[in-house]
Design a protein that fits this description.
The complex is a heterodimer of chains A (220) and B (284).
Chain A lengths: L1 H13 L4 H16 L4 H25 L1 H7 L4 H14 L1 H17 L6 H29 L1 H4 L4 H17 L2 H13 L2 H32 L3
Chain B lengths: L2 E11 L4 E10 L3 E5 L6 H8 L7 E6 L2 E2 H9 L2 E4 L11 H8 L8 H10 L13 H12 L6 E5 L7 H14 L6 E6 L2 H7 L2 E6 L2 E7 H6 L1 E7 L5 H4 L3 E6 L2 E7 L11 E4 L2 H11 L2
Parallel strand pairs in B: 3-8, 3-9, 6-7, 7-8
Antiparallel strand pairs in B: 1-2, 1-4, 4-5, 9-10, 11-13, 11-14, 12-13
Helix pairs in contact in B: 4-5
The chains are: A mainly alpha (220), B alpha/beta (284).
Chain lengths: 220, 284
């Protein structure tokens, strides 16, 4: 019950700031539908999820929410679990956003790029959960203000690694891998996607366990 | 149950400050004032009781159970009012209730609305639109709306006008009326405690200087005034916070030392404030 209460508290924290996303979502949808392109809503969903996942940390830092939690009838572990559950819950509006062009397309009899939308949804889940898995423990250990720059270090590292692989590794070395992916039957692609999500979810859970230890040991 | 809080030999070490071996209790049916100058360890003690800080040594019992082992269930019976509310500034007051109520099985919405009305707080207002006094009242309204048995207040009256402070003291007296509930009230504005406290715990430099009834605390000292040269050097050493001025001297004296001084000195009852100020100056 206390975890549900924490979920509710997280939602109430970001609620006053949700409306600023409505306009951005509307733009993304209009562009996505107008240009028959799922990238806009997908990218918007990723940005939204990453931002909204961090919002409670930012807001509680400003309001010294940690002190509020300590006065409430809730264990520190449930504060952490509530935040991680909230990160998962945010995927729901993300999915709605990613799949909305497809749904509209189906309703209006337009072309339905199911594979493209599914790929975007997969990318959204992987990126959002990975971002949160990296950031959340640092925020729980040090607080938002101290940790916000530190969490960029692993992200910059991964981005740099990606660029290095893309730019330095010769195309003919990557080509067989891309061709292999292209040649995979839909069923195998789905399995691969599910496996990727499972791995990322496992990392998310491990991150939660680490965050629990950090937060439980912290003096507030 | 006799005590809602029992602290035994509580120690917490920081780099520049140590709370050392503090032992005190907060009996049910009474208001206990936790007093001392800034930096004396009042907030540290409260943070340790609430589990915000990890203790280095000692024991904290809440409702006769170990504070750590009792966990969240114990906290359902505790209300806390801090020096400022730690709510999201953009929340409206009815959203404060929506955020807090799910944490307490005994949350009483009708009581919360009643207190908002009593304190003249508009539920549609945002937290950031409230004055300091109104924010304190909002915290008190929330604190009194889940049938808590223990109310902990940490410097709630700092910066409040006398009317708001008076309202708060009335609320606290009402809270303990049934004899089953207790209040721990940390403040450096001791005039509030002068009116309502039953027990006093006096901290200085992280050490408990006194714990007992307010009457014992106030009765243990007298204010001393006298002319120049009315005390010998040895007698001056008995005076706490000895201050010489043009007309003579003044200071604080333990009542038990009164018979060691000449009859020419004048004594007056000392207030809590005067005792703390003198003891702080005298370093005793």
């Amino acid at each position: 019950m206390k975890r549900i209460a924490m979920l509710n508290l997280n939602y109430l924290m970001i609620r006053p700031y949700l409306k600023q996303y409505l306009l951005l979502i509307a733009f993304a949808l209009v562009f996505g539908i107008a240009f028959q392109n799922t990238t806009y809503p997908g990218m918007m969903a990723i940005v939204m999820l990453i931002n909204l996942g961090v919002y409670p940390f930012m807001l509680e830092e400003k309001a010294q929410g940690d002190i509020l939690y300590a006065t409430l009838s809730v264990r520190r572990r449930d504060v952490v679990v509530g935040r991680y559950l909230f990160g998962l819950l945010l995927l729901i509006p993300g999915f709605l956003l990613v799949f909305s062009p497809l749904a509209l397309s189906l309703l209006t009899g337009g072309p339905a790029e199911v594979a493209e939308v599914a790929g975007m949804a997969l990318a959204m889940v992987v990126v959002a959960l990975l971002f949160n898995a990296i950031q959340f423990p640092a925020f729980f250990k040090m607080g938002y203000a101290k940790a916000r720059y530190i969490v960029f270090v692993p992200m910059i590292f991964f981005a740099a690694l990606f660029i290095v692989i893309w730019k330095i590794v010769p195309n003919d070395m990557l080509a067989p891998f891309i061709a292999w992916l292209d040649a995979l039957p839909t069923q195998s692609l789905l399995f691969l996607g599910a496996a990727l999500v499972a791995v990322v979810f496992l990392l998310y859970v491990i991150s939660g366990v680490i965050a629990c230890r950090f937060y439980s040991a912290r003096d507030l | 149950m006799n005590n809602s809080i029992e602290i035994k030999c509580l120690t917490k070490r920081f780099n520049a400050f140590t709370l050392e071996g503090v032992s005190l209790s907060v009996p049910c049916g009474y208001i206990t004032g936790l007093i001392g100058p800034n930096g004396s360890g009042k907030t540290t003690t409260i943070k340790l009781v609430l589990g915000m800080l990890k203790k280095d040594a000692g024991e904290i019992l809440l409702f006769e159970q170990d504070s750590k082992a009792g966990g969240e269930a114990l906290k359902e019976d505790i209300s806390v009012v801090m020096d400022q509310p730690y709510y999201i500034e953009d929340w409206r007051l009815y959203q404060v209730e929506k955020a807090l109520a799910p944490f307490y099985p005994n949350w009483d919405s009708a009581a919360f609305r009643r207190y908002l009305a009593q304190f003249e707080l508009d539920a549609k207002k945002k937290v950031k639109e409230l004055s300091r006094g109104m924010k304190m009242k909002l915290q008190v309204a929330a604190a009194l709306s889940h049938n808590a048995k223990l109310l902990i207040l940490d410097e709630p009256t700092s910066g409040l006008d006398p009317v708001a402070r008076d309202e708060l003291t009335d609320v606290l007296q009402e809270f303990i009326r049934d004899g089953e509930r207790a209040v721990l009230f940390s403040t450096h504005i001791t005039a509030d405690l002068e009116k309502i406290a039953d027990y006093i715990a006096y901290l200085r430099d992280g050490q408990l200087q006194f714990f007992g009834t307010k009457d014992d605390f106030v009765g243990a000292y007298v204010l001393l005034k006298g002319g120049q040269n009315s005390l010998t050097d040895d007698q001056k050493k008995l005076v706490i916070g000895y201050r010489a001025h043009g007309a003579g001297f003044d200071g604080l004296l333990r009542r038990e030392d009164l018979n060691k001084l000449p009859g020419a000195v004048v004594t007056e009852p000392a207030s809590i404030d005067e005792i703390i100020v003198r003891m702080n100056k005298g370093g005793q």
